[in-house]
Amino acid sequence: MSGIGATSTGPVIHVRPGRSTGWWGVVFMIVTESVLFGLLLFTYFYFRAGQGEWPPAGLPMPELRGSGIRTVVLLGSTFPLVWAERSLLKRGHVAKSAVWLFVTMAMAGVFLIGHVQEQFVLWEELAPTETAYGSVLMTILNFHAAHLVVGMLALAYSAVHLLRGRITQKQHSMLEISGMYWHFVDAIWVFVYSSLFLSPHLLGR
Amino acid sequence: MLAWGVVAALAAACSSLQQGSLAPKGAGAQRQLDLFYVSLWASTAVVLLTLGLLGYALFRRRRDDDEERFRDTRFIVSFGVVIPLVVLLSMMVVTFASLAGEPQRGTMEVQVVAHQFWWEVFYPEQDFTTANEVHIPVGTKVELVLESDDVIHSFWVPELEGKADLVPGRTNRLVLEASEPGTYRGFCAEYCGLQHANMLFLVIAQPEAEFEEWAAAQARPAAVQDSRGEELFEEHACAGCHTIRGTSADGDFAPDLTHFASRETLGAGILPNERGQLAGWVVNSQTIKPGNEMPPITTLEPDELEALVDYLEKLE
Amino acid sequence: MTSTLERATTHERLDRIWSDKPGLVGFFSSVDHKRVGRRYLVTSLTFFVLGGIQALMMRTQLAQPELDLVSPQVFNQLMTMHGTTMIFLFNTTIWAGFGNYFLPLQLGTRDMAFPRLNMLSYWIFLMAGILTYSSLLVGDIPDGGWFAYVPFTGKEYSPTQSIDYWALGMALLGISTTVGGINFIVTTFKMRAPGMTVSRLPIFVWGIVVMSFMMVFALPAVTLAQVLLEFDRVFGFNFFDPGSGGDPVLFQHLFWLWGHPEVYIVFVPATGAVSMIVASLSRTPLAGYLLVATALVAIGFFSFGVWVHHMFTVGLGFMALSFFSAASFFVSLPSGVQFFAWIATLWKGRPSFATPMLWVLGTMFIFLLGGITGVMVAMVPFDFQAQDSYFVVAHFHYTLVGGSVFPVFAAVYYWLPKITGRMLSEPLGKVSFWLAFIGFNVTFFPLHVVGLWGMPRRYYTYPADVGWGGINLVATVGAYALALGFALSFINIFWSMRRGRPAGANPWDADTLEWAISSPPPEYNFLELPRVTSLYPLWEPEMQRVGAEEEPQHDRPVLLPPEGEVEHYTLATGGIDAEAENVMAMPAPSFWPFVVSLAVTTIFYAMLVRQFWVGVVGALVAATGLMGWYWPRWEEGEVELVGEELEEAIR
Structure pTM? Predict the structure, then answer.
């Protein structure tokens, strides 16, 4: 019964706490995208199962230092995002929340710059037009990067509306949803990194 | 019911056409047909039972206390779960038994390489290559080693054995065993492009001795003295693609023609190997089988064509 | 609200709020689920006609051996486009059409959860169809088969762009299908009428929801297959090139990982519709509702475990063959449960033989035979013979026509009166049914036999001396009868829209909520949003009043915005029991879905013509469009008043 006619922030009147349709929609989008990433990794291991040596003869082992640093940065970006959500939801600090959002995006930017640099190297080394290994690696990495860009756009969009006052302590589903998507992109990277970078080292050639 | 009637009529009309997998001439096809008949009888029983229940449900005389007397869950579970489960489990056992009976290895090996749109057949023991014709001795398990040179094809001789695909980058095996001598038609059964429908072949099952004789003859180089024929074969670029062992023609792109005249068909099982057809094929096979890889030979004068066909017809 | 007069004013105001603008503005900005549903149905049936014409051309070519009516090239294009059209563009989308129109009505709400995404789904579906069919304009028509197996569809063996039209068009369609599926799921999760617990969901809704879950899980596989194929073709990657460590069989795995569930994606909503029709026209509740719902969910799960049975001849080990054979046997069990639930319903009810029922009975006969031959081809050694022969062609036409096309016609005869407000002609419907039913069996039953004789699929002709001519001629004659039968139903549809007898709210005396409102439904669907206390709302005496009477309905909210406001209100519910959660203002009509779909289509066309900068422009427009689309609408400080009805709703 709470809040009939009393909400002054939007058209939605909360009767009983429940997730919004938008939240559910993004959940299922994440589900279907997870399947897509799962199948891409399946493709990677399918190729691996068909080859004696991995990475195939003549191709270098994946490099761990730079990619490791980028991994730490990307996974670390989860924290400022959580703080951004908390500052808004718990305390209503709009400005603080926005700052944390920008920190998140900056960390993602660092990851992306590293990604682009790595692409130049990998394109030379792996010759995706000559080996299936190169094809699948480049596809997965860029596919993930594309998701990262979409996630950044969503966060930037949320930050803009946060500063415009259209996302508030009570009316925050846009931030919540783009945040959820960001966590998804982060989580996928864990699988991508451990498959593409760690597994050849751990399992051996 | 009408459909069954139609089928009965058709079956009667076509009883003389017991052919293909319904007229097995090999151990594999026989096993597959046995399995089909088991499932056919089981299916007929299931279909009749189901349609009977459906008919009764529709047309039965209705009474007022029907709703109370009818236990729908019990009905659904018994007919929709229990009975199907029993039928399916028994079919599964039969299937696995049949599957386990599939021979894994043969006693003799033949390599088949599929091309768009013809078949290259290589006999490793006797070391010779032929095309679009697989000769096998009757009663012998012949292990086919199946590979593809371009796209995916599938090797199917309904009278003898089910299919196996020929996939680039893979090697599949299929064991053929004919129980009777005869000529059996084979088909490409995986869509492979423009002339998928005209990628046929023959399997010729012969008594052991006859087969040995054939193989020995095929293994010999061509024994034709026809320098004009050879010359024309070279001159009009035939030799760039075709091989005739014993001559300078050693192309490896198209069917080996060393003993071309001994084959029954032309153009991958689509034409009888006769002089008129052959001449037409040589001049412009594209009108007969559009899209095959052999270009029209426009440079041939009429007398040259005669001579070339003479030569080819001598390649026994 | 106490008087008839007040009801009339409420109707007028709701009608004004929910109506689209007239003319082209309304046409391109509408987001109404009924309009989306109608468009889906019309477009999808148009593709059905195109696919049917292609089929007739093929059957004519095959009527006798060695005919030369169409060239091999054209035949292969017909074969490819027929499969692509019927599976991707007709069978899948037609159920999205019925779902779009009837799911919100059966749930007792005013729209889908995401009306704009809903219209986006439609536009993208249309544009994907146009993209693929635009290959006709340049004469470079896809000819790789609807399954597009590599390496034949790779750059080396298909150097023209024909395959790109297929791969890009169908990948684009995948976006539409995925978005549509998510929309159905969320609508069902969040927008059921209060009191519509999970055990009170109409069985058609179960069908649509299971279909949608399957789409969410299965579609990425085929999308990936198509995208990787394009990467190989456009960028020279090596996913499917065995020489560089790739594998053509991977494509088959990805394709069938979607392809088999796809069979059930079209089958599950169809059986949902059949269950509804059987129950309505037998005037009795569906027997074994819980079993049927469970069966639908079970099909959803098991259908993901059988894809390899399309690849039995590709060269697999004994273990793989056995496992997928066994799985393929048991995937038929849930269908058996549904089948006997229908028989049980007919048994305990008093079936009427109106036209929808005839199509349902036709469905049952045809699907029974298709299911039986399905079990046969699950027997691996027999499948070695049947695979890629006309036996399989006959088998899956029995399952798809029995499992989806006949149910489509049953659904058309059953539901079209709700959409148009007019009944279809019964005599014409019956003639149409018998012609189609007999024609179908005459076409496809003999094909089992010719397949066993050894006739492989996808042959543009066959030799004269094998003796297949007679049986093929019979099949071709049957195909014309079948086409004539279907054509009569199309005539019936057009006739009924002008001349049909007015249908009234509930011509079948059916039980679900869509029959509570007038035919065609008002723009806002329900004046008072219904509250549900039963699985058969309209068969419960108290619910028969919904919409049908003039009395006020105090326990059912109207959700009318204050005078002068135009918010589109509907109720959000949640949880297993569908408790009221809040009042949602649904998005207003918008041009953004159309703009975004155009932009997205541009990206795919850019891939096709290899003009990547055009693609970048498309992506920028799409991104801008999405931002405009999701621009928050409300102003801070705006006071929301939704009237007393809300209090009633929440109580």
Answer: 0.94
